[in-house]
Amino acid sequence: MTIFHMKQSIAGCLRNNRIGTIDFLEDGKGNPLSDAEARVELNKLLAKGHTVMPVGDDCEGFDVFGGGCPGHEPLAGSDLTRAMLERGDKAIMCGVGPGKSFFVLVTGIEFGEFLTSTGTYYLDPVPVNNKGEILTAQEAGF
Q: What is the pLDDT along the chain (142 residues), one digit of tens a residue?
């Protein structure tokens, strides 16, 4: 399943939303902006040359001139394990070996391989839940 990201036209947001309806933006501290505050901030962005704002997660490779999101395959397998470690997860239960039926606790990456809590290395550990079922990117919080 390919994931596609969206962006909102700032000018379109200002033009197409009635007064009082831009109530979905926050300041840098996570506090909601009033419609009036949001309109001021959006106009500041336009003045700086910004044309769009992300909707949800930002997207690497987004073409703001009409191409949009190039599409992304969801993280899976050892790529998901790597992303979880890069996010700051300290220890990830993973399946390794044939059928991913042997479970280890992955704690880091060294020399291009995944390091376990026992000091062994694996090339392709797959994150699993507490039932031994392979995690999806969504279940892992991506």
A: 687 888 899 999 999 999 889 999 999 899 999 999 999 999 999 999 988 887 877 788 888 777 888 988 888 999 999 999 999 999 999 999 888 989 999 999 999 899 999 999 999 999 999 999 999 988 998 8
Residue type, 3: I
CA distance 122 to 101: 14
Angstrom distance (rounded) from CA 2 to CA 73: 5
Give pairs for 85-92: CB < 8 Å, separation 24+.
Answer: 85/109, 87/141, 91/117, 92/125, 92/127
The first and second tokens of residue 65, run together, are: 């001139």
Cβ contact 46:11 at 8 Å: yes
The token pair at 115 is 């390091």
pTM of the model: 0.56
On the CB side of 42, CA atoms within 13 Å amount to 24
